[in-house]
Task: structure prediction
Amino acid sequence: MIPGLALQILFVFIGFLFLILTFSSLAKRRINEAICLIWGITSLVIILAGILLRPVGWNKYISVTGLVLAVIILFGVLFVLFTLSVIVSEHMRKSNEMAIQISLLKGELDEQQKEIEELKEKISDRKAETIPDDSSK
Result:
């Protein structure tokens, strides 16, 4: 009974830890809203699993050491997945910023190309004015 209660408390603790980690990452703008929503729901599911599941007979099938090892592995995998989702979110944000910068640079390039064309036209008009006609001789 004691390992089952410890497992429940650990699941609730891990769920709250991931919930706090998720919202703090959202506040620091390290993670976007969609990924935050997914991790928030995952955290709530972990909390509900800790509250609602009653691991009463697990002592017969898995030892306390095996249970601790499984929980550590589960926590490690969840933490790695969370870290990967933060990295993906940061890359998505950087990609969006780069797309905005590229579109601004394209606009500036178009403006400069128009100015160059106008200057070429002015130069060609001035050259045409300064060159004397052969028919006037």
Summary: DSSP finds three helices and no strands in the chain. The chain has a mean pLDDT of 87. The longest helix spans residues 64-130.
